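User: I want to check something. If I give you two sequences, will you return the structure for each one separately, not as a complex?

Assistant: Yes, each is folded on its own. Here is the first sequence with its structure:
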Amino acid sequence: VGALSAELDKIDTRASQEQLHQLAATAGQMGVTAQEDILGFVRAANQLTVALDELGEDGVETLVKINELTGETDKLGLERALLASGSAINELSAASAASAGPIADVISRLGGIGAASNLATADLAALGATADALGQSSEVAGSSLGKFIGTLVSKSDQVAHAVGIDRQYLKGLIDQGNTMEAMIAVFEKMEKMGGFAKLAPIMGDLGSEGARASALFAAFAGNVDLLKSQVDVSRTAFAEATSVTREYATVNETAAALVERMGNSIREFFVNSGVVEWITNLLRALMNLPQWLDKN
């Protein structure tokens, strides 16, 4: 624990030492046990919460869970997978009217079905950003797109027939793990065929959200170029995994951040030196001074 604490104290950030230690505790609660993995989580989570303040600690935890589901953590390691996810979200926010919070919310809502359908974290982020940029709520986007993805994967023949796509072509995309490309192909056909009507019978009852779900599908079908662009932005940023670090550096170098970091360094000096004990003894002596004067 002492060695971990010493490493955490070396991180130069506007976040307080208490916040860094809380992130380490969060890592432990999530089942991260190896010291290097805990440090990696803290380094990445610190960057994400500073650079993407709307994301928050809950959003970081969500990304960890989704990266585990989609296999990104196994491929990249905990720290890089987090930085990659944060970079995708940061670039998507910069490239459109989407913002980090709703993107992370959609990722969370689609994580299970997305992972089961071979959608990568970067693809889920692109779907979230497209929905938010088009003014669709994350709640409706999560439930409607989740049902759409499930229907597409489990009933690809029926979907292909309904929208006029070659069945083997669509099934091949899905079988090869190109589910996002399959979604785009269906949305393109939906636009040419006048919207969601052809798919509605296959997807079944959408309940009370039916009207809003239809509006969402119409928005996606009418903005396929935006979706394609978001997918490209997200996949590139995820692969590079550097955007959130650059944003973090920019935020961390503002005047306010420099003051906070200076304060952290001063507090760390006092905590890790004999100054605290000296001040404590001095204050005790001052408190006892009136009593000593009375007696003498």
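And separately, the second sequence with its own structure:
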Amino acid sequence: KEIVHYILYGCVFKLEISILIAITLPEERKMEGHKHSNIDQQETELFNQYAAEYTEKYDYPHCYEIMAYDFKKGTQFLKNALGSVLDMGCGNGNLYPLIYPMSTSYFGIDFSKSLVEMARNQSIRSGDCFEVANIKNTGLKSNSFDTIISYGVLHHTIEHVTILKEMYRLLKPGGHIILYEPNRDAVFIEMLRYFRKCLDKKFSSNQKSFSKKEIESLFARSGFEPVHCVYSLYALGFFADIKYKFLPKSITNFLYQIARQVEKAIEQIPGNFIKKQAFAINFIGKKTMAEGDGLI
């Protein structure tokens, strides 16, 4: 009971801090990422610099398990049958072991040479590959993939419609895009992200997050039909990006198991208000026509 009380007290405290920041947060700081003139270069340099540390994070079992849990929330809607897959922003290839059994072929691209080199170190299926490429203009053939996966990529960019239109071009008619992005509908979590931007130099100041309505608008402008949306990661969101080196593994595992039970309980609560207070939003869109047919 005492542990539950501490968790609830922590959530209330975070909410109070978030509301305070929301009141005082200058509008200029919210838009800071959009004022940079060379976002692509900044993000590439950041990920090249911290590639090894980013990869090390997934040596912690709970971090990888949470990513897998979040990832499968999106693929379950497609019954885990993805066909030919383009992993757009594949990073170090950490999703490949999850995508491989669900797909007939895999192609991963990323703008970070360091991360792509790490991705190539793993054992892969014959014909699958990882390449360095610009997601705004991949140079790949139109109508080539059944599924495009973009796991936490779009929020590192500012040309969202351009990137989504490139995804639309690459998908076969009837193909699906699966987006996994930070959720802006959860106000206090959004404010925690602001804190991290201020304090953590490895957390890009160019990052943003998306509301459900904003993704629907981006899909409409890019030609996609929205077909499914699910919020993901509540209690588990506090563990997803943290290695907890300062705690003994036994305590970390104990807290993680509690977070898993809290996560399951929250997911069973009816209504949309609680569900929107998640760290992530997973969105699936469908290409309903051939590339170029009626799309502006």
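Because they were folded independently, the notes below concern the second chain alone. The chain is about 45% helix and 20% strand. Residues 1-37 have pLDDT under 50 and may be disordered.
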